[in-house]
Specification:
This protein has strands at 4-7, 10-13, 18-24, 32-39, 46-51, 58-60, 68-73, 78-83, 92-100, 116-117, 121-126. The protein is mainly beta.
């Protein structure tokens, strides 16, 4: 079992950057694939990015590809989401998620595949 907690959200100008962090508890963090999802008011929760348990495989939503980067540090039990060139459509609550990985390359965009979720961190973009 793993618990996750996000941090790093805040207010940033249009075109600016922000780095979200996710701290995970548990000794087996390296056994879990990690993901980031986001939910804007009145909308469904959408996939943003995912990373395999080794960090070698990453997967991005088309809307953020080339602007966002997901990374992890298994020694520190952390996952990061670096967001560049933030746009007016990016504001949302961003959630960190974890799912037990079946192999080293496994990652997924399916929200139902993720077992553990954080409380979320708010990202706001001002124009």
């Amino acid at each position: 079992q793993v618990q996750v907690a996000e941090s790093g959200g805040g207010l940033v100008q249009d075109g600016g950057s922000l780095r979200l962090s996710c701290a995970a508890s548990g000794r087996t963090f390296s056994s879990y694939a990690m993901g980031w999802f986001r939910q804007a008011p009145g909308k469904e929760r959408d996939f943003v990015a995912a990373i395999s348990r080794t960090g070698y495989t990453t997967y991005y939503a088309e809307s953020v590809k080339g602007r966002f980067t997901i990374s992890r540090d298994n020694a520190k039990n952390t996952v990061h989401l670096k967001m560049n060139s933030l746009k007016p459509e990016d504001p949302a609550i961003y959630y960190c998620t974890a799912t037990y990985a079946r192999n080293n390359s496994y990652s997924t965009a399916r929200s139902r595949a993720y077992e553990y979720w954080g409380q979320g961190t708010q990202v706001t973009v001002s124009s």
